[in-house]
Amino acid sequence: MKKILLLLVSAALLGACAQDRDHVLKVYNWSDYMDLTAIPEFEEWYEQQTGEKVKVIVQTFDINETMLSKIEKGHEDYDVVCPSEYIIERMLRNDLLLPIGDDFGDTPNYIREYLSPYVRTCFDKLDCGGKNANDYAVGYMWGTVGLIYNAKYVTAEEVSTWNVLRNPKFDGKIFLKDSARDMFCQIIIYLHRDDLAAGKVTVEELMLDSSDEAIAEVEAFLKDAAQYAAGWEADFGKDQLVQERGWISVNWSGDGVWSRDQAAPLGVDLRFALPEEGYTMWFDGWVIPKYARNPKAARYWINFMNRPDIVVRNMEFTGYVSTSAAPEVLEAFIDEKYDPINLSYFFGPEADSVNVDPVLYPDLSVIEKGGLEHDWGERTPLLVEMWSRVKGDNANWMTVAVVSVFLIALLAFAILSRRSRKRKHRRS
What we know:
The protein is an alpha/beta fold. The chain contains 19 helices and 14 strands. It folds into three domains: 2-137 and 285-322, D-Maltodextrin-Binding Protein, domain 2; 143-281 and 368-420, Periplasmic binding protein-like II (D-Maltodextrin-Binding Protein, domain 2); 333-367, no CATH class. The longest helix has 21 residues, at 397-417.
């Protein structure tokens, strides 16, 4: 209902402001991916900083490619958008973004002051056709891809490897992520574990491997794993684990925290693990599309989203981790119940021993095993074809059963899970 209301209000405002587009900021974002109460604060803050009025219109998407298609083919005039890292690569290669710049006059530059150097380094690694992503994108949220598991039935040792996905011991208890890119990247890491350990290849190099050989190797592994899968899930796997209808789920770290917290009151011990072979990280970032009509307000929006108090509110609302390294952010998430870990890579040398949830912020020794996923460009259709073969050749009765049960229980469980405020983050 909240989303329908938001769309109706947005449509009404767009109509009213059609003749005054210079004072409208059109934001295209993931569902439930920010604290909407910050919007009127931005409008007031923007007027204070620039002397100009602006009305923010928010529209949402659930799939990266849906957003990209609207901009690429429809030339939609969104002013600021929040795509994932591989889509940022694709947009830059296709000349679809405007540079952000960092001159805000007398307004504090929260981007330059607080954006984590680690995030800048990661964006430096994006393959953008000769362009530097840091000139066109500012990180918003980030996380890792790992395994949520039920500690009652699965040991930490068993989930220390991606090979657990084809362990017959867990037949019918594993949910595979319905994301070709996320699954491919984890499996290619596992298949090259020996070369990684010997230093013959790096995770970053593997993330750029879209060869026919790599596709065939991963396809064989996934077909093997699919015979033990309870189903392919985009967003409901964590719910199934909370209800103990499954024991293992390939998932994102933010959902690992959510499922753990939802399961605890029910006496279900869910945990999140990053396999020792390595894993991938994902980043979402704010960008200004080339068809934007109000790039100035878009730049100020991105700056505002990096203001420490707004960062903390958005993290608390979404359950995901900001790319901001502001001291206030670290302080807000210090929790003495966790053992000290080394977050110097993210917050600076003074954060070499801090008590923070390691699911949100992996320790330095763990983060070094991570890598960034990349856009495959013209070879993307081959990834999609492989994925279709894997799912088509290995569909089983359990998939149908799980989906049926999920749909029946959806309405009831939605009432409980509504508090989670999670967005469906779909990646192809």
